[in-house]
Amino acid sequence: MKLAIMGAGAVGRSVGTLAPEYGHTITGIADSTGSVQDPAGIDIDGVLERKGERGTVGDAPPEDVLEAEYDVLVEATPTTLGDAEPGFSHVLRALERDRDVVLANKGPVAERYDDVMDAAGESEGAVRFEATVGGAIPAIATAEGIGAEHISAARGVLNGTANFVLTRMATEGLAYEHVLAEAQDLGVAEADPSFDVEGTDAALKGVILANVLDDGGHELADAEIDGIEDFPANALEVANKDGMTIRLIAEVSADRVRVGPRLVPENATLAVTGTMNILQFDTAHAGQLNVSGRGAGGPETASAVLADVDRLSCANGSGRSTADRD
Questions:
Q1: Is residue 320 pLDDT above 80, yes or no?
Q2: pLDDT tens across 215-235, in order?
Q3: Residue ranges of domains in the chain, CATH in brackets
């Protein structure tokens, strides 16, 4: 399959680097200021080296990649809220060309899921978004495999930064500000960690999962969100005395998405530590199912992107090029 990548951050770069291992060719890549494309395939290592030296992947306008020769557009630009732009428009343009889309960007399927699916319904292209929930965890594929109609609820730890902070606060008795600074030094937290510690990132993932289970109808504004930024360390001490701990849990049930700190038994399945993520499904016929793993990171998230590309390749008929639809 020929892939074009919008976004050259950690995920976009990792997709470009790993794609050849999966048998795919990168025909274009764009960052916020430039792009490069070649229908025969670009030298991704050379392009990324150029970005490191000059700050951009190429001299052409970024939007040129949308018109490149590709089978699958990988949308890996930063997640934006509200109108989900520019990612949403990138998705629409690919679908207008009857191309497939794989999203690492959460915005389009968290904020405009119904619009995305309507556009996909009018296109010969398809949209997949495994990488938007739980990084390397096969959250969407698991839900699809079980069948949404057989899942009554889902919950999980879906933000590694918040989980790292809570884990360190609980095990070391450290204050929130101290642990957050440590997380930033380690690269676990961003310089501006508000997206993670306020619960927004976990809520976006909960909303996406709710859209999968309810066939749309959810946006971030519908979610009830409490973060950990004002969470007192002594609350963890009190919980620990009772054999409990606290995790930032995203919950999806009965048309409702909630995110907030929750008490869980310290040895419970949901009490994952560090940056690990876990997702728990309540099913009608298989009981409670759990999937866990690394919820973030360039290679980890890229593995989910490329798994979606492989699913599309199979759906298209043993790798039949999307360009054959023209």
A1: no
A2: 999 999 999 999 999 888 788
A3: 2-135+299-325 (3.40.50.720), 139-294 (3.30.360.10)
- CA dist., res. 84 & res. 114, Å (int): 13
The DSSP element (H or E) to which 282 belongs, if any, is strand 276-283
Average pLDDT over residues 157-161: 95
Work out the angle at residue 215's Cα, subtended by the Cα atoms of residues 152 and 130, and round it to the nearest 5 degrees: 85
> Which pair of tokens denotes residue 326?
């023209």
Q: Which residue has the tokens 């008929």?
A: 317
Tokens 């620990």 sit at which residue? Answer: 240
Q: How far apart are CA 231 and CA 245, in angstroms?
A: 13
Neighbour tally for 3: CB within 10 Å: 26
Catalytic: 2?
no
Q: Are 166 and 275 in contact (CB under 8 A)?
A: no
In this prediction, residue 325 carries a pLDDT of 54
What does the block give as tokens for 63? 């939007």
- pLDDT score at 294: 87
Q: Which of 2, 51, 106, 205 is catalytic?
A: 205
Backbone angles phi, psi at 203, to 5 degrees: -65, -40
